[in-house]
Amino acid sequence: MIAIRGAITVDANTREAILQETEALLKEILERNSLEREEIVGINFTATRDLTAAYPAVAARSLGLVDCSLMCFQEMHVENSLPMCIRAMVLVERQTGQKSAAHVYMKEARRLRPDLASGEAGAGRPLAVAIDGPAGAGKSTVAKGVAKRLGIIYVDTGAMYRALALHCMEQGVDLEDGEALAKALDRSGIRLEHGSDGQRVFLGERDVTEEIRREDVGNNASRVSVHPDVREKMVEMQQRIAGSQAVVMDGRDIGTHVLPDATLKVYLTASSLVRAQRRHLELQAKGMERRLDLLVEEIEERDRRDMEREHAPLRQAEDAVLLDASDLDAEQVVERVLSLLERVEA
Ligand SMILES: Nc1ncnc2c1ncn2[C@@H]1O[C@H](COP(=O)(O)OP(=O)(O)O)[C@@H](O)[C@H]1O
Ligand SMILES: Nc1ccn([C@H]2C[C@H](O)[C@@H](COP(=O)(O)OP(=O)(O)O)O2)c(=O)n1
């Protein structure tokens, strides 16, 4: 069982305002924690004594939360405390541990927990830059550049899914069987090492940093990454890495799931043609010719799979900055990210 906290303020003591803001708060809690409605056991709401026009629980029922138990209380009144505030504690049947809970504080209630409110550089929390986006947008190039300029480590989460794909391909594990893949992940010994030459990826004692870059491994990484059991374990490993040190992390779900409280979130994209052209050049440099139109098709197929999967699909986090790099070179994108970071840290 985990308990997820949230709070939001209301502009007026009216039924409409209370229900509207409660609904916004609950939607954000559901979204940020990827909650299925059936997982919720109960929700306790409190409202400050100045809110009397409606029960917040009504908003939960209208969101389809019909099976869980709901209670509304009046918040204990403390002198000079935040007025017009609705608080919620959502009890969830999950074995993922309390640390996996993403608490949500919105509007004026962000002041209650500046260490948790998304978008604010968390007090005492290591710096975290999250870069998400589709294949070939330039995430790893830019993340590496930013990490180098900041003197912190770069964590390529795609490499972890690639390493799992390689391990399973070699061990003959069925790539459609989520349970078998999760077991294989436990046995795989996937490990990241961060040295002066960047990230190196290991399966046990074997360094697979170069091998996982193969095209077939990349496509199979996209296939293994659709399974929730696999993602849950990967996210835990990634959160552990970012919990103790400053990171630039790139992937598909960093801003939305892995680091919901990242200091800065960037959603980096470029048109599928530009991304295919980059891939074309990359392959040419390795002496391999591929038809551009086929590369466009492959990239669009991968986008579809990453964006349409049920669990933690690729999408822009609400508080992420959209950066379209179609007409920017890599150095320009690094500069943009650094200046965005300066702004959020100011
Ligand atoms: N802004 C950019 N302009 C031109 N080429 C870029 C840019 N960013 C990355 N590249 C090149 O595009 C290719 C794919 O970039 P990469 O960082 O591997 O993308 P991703 O990690 O998003 O899949 C690489 O060959 C890289 O050198
Ligand atoms: N955080 C992540 C990182 C990668 N994945 C999946 C989706 C991608 O298709 C594969 C491979 O990721 P990777 O970033 O190495 O792929 P590209 O370099 O962008 O081609 O893994 C993911 O689901 N979540």
Automatic annotation (TrEMBL):
<feature type="domain" description="Cytidylate kinase">
    <location>
        <begin position="129"/>
        <end position="342"/>
    </location>
</feature>
<dbReference type="Pfam" id="PF07736">
    <property type="entry name" value="CM_1"/>
</dbReference>
<dbReference type="Pfam" id="PF02224">
    <property type="entry name" value="Cytidylate_kin"/>
</dbReference>
<protein>
    <recommendedName>
        <fullName>Cytidylate kinase</fullName>
        <ecNumber>2.7.4.25</ecNumber>
    </recommendedName>
</protein>
<comment type="similarity">
    <text>Belongs to the cytidylate kinase family. Type 1 subfamily.</text>
</comment>
<dbReference type="InterPro" id="IPR027417">
    <property type="entry name" value="P-loop_NTPase"/>
</dbReference>
<dbReference type="GO" id="GO:0004106">
    <property type="term" value="F:chorismate mutase activity"/>
</dbReference>
<dbReference type="GO" id="GO:0009073">
    <property type="term" value="P:aromatic amino acid family biosynthetic process"/>
</dbReference>
<keyword id="KW-0963">Cytoplasm</keyword>
<dbReference type="GO" id="GO:0046417">
    <property type="term" value="P:chorismate metabolic process"/>
</dbReference>
<keyword id="KW-0808">Transferase</keyword>
<dbReference type="InterPro" id="IPR008243">
    <property type="entry name" value="Chorismate_mutase_AroH"/>
</dbReference>
<keyword id="KW-0067">ATP-binding</keyword>
<feature type="binding site">
    <location>
        <begin position="133"/>
        <end position="141"/>
    </location>
    <ligand>
        <name>ATP</name>
    </ligand>
</feature>
<dbReference type="GO" id="GO:0008652">
    <property type="term" value="P:amino acid biosynthetic process"/>
</dbReference>
<keyword id="KW-0547">Nucleotide-binding</keyword>
<feature type="coiled-coil region">
    <location>
        <begin position="278"/>
        <end position="305"/>
    </location>
</feature>
<dbReference type="InterPro" id="IPR035959">
    <property type="entry name" value="RutC-like_sf"/>
</dbReference>
<keyword id="KW-0418">Kinase</keyword>
<dbReference type="GO" id="GO:0005524">
    <property type="term" value="F:ATP binding"/>
</dbReference>
<dbReference type="GO" id="GO:0005737">
    <property type="term" value="C:cytoplasm"/>
</dbReference>
<dbReference type="GO" id="GO:0006220">
    <property type="term" value="P:pyrimidine nucleotide metabolic process"/>
</dbReference>
<keyword id="KW-0175">Coiled coil</keyword>
<keyword id="KW-0413">Isomerase</keyword>
<dbReference type="InterPro" id="IPR011994">
    <property type="entry name" value="Cytidylate_kinase_dom"/>
</dbReference>
<dbReference type="GO" id="GO:0036431">
    <property type="term" value="F:dCMP kinase activity"/>
</dbReference>
<keyword id="KW-0028">Amino-acid biosynthesis</keyword>
<dbReference type="InterPro" id="IPR003136">
    <property type="entry name" value="Cytidylate_kin"/>
</dbReference>
<keyword id="KW-0057">Aromatic amino acid biosynthesis</keyword>
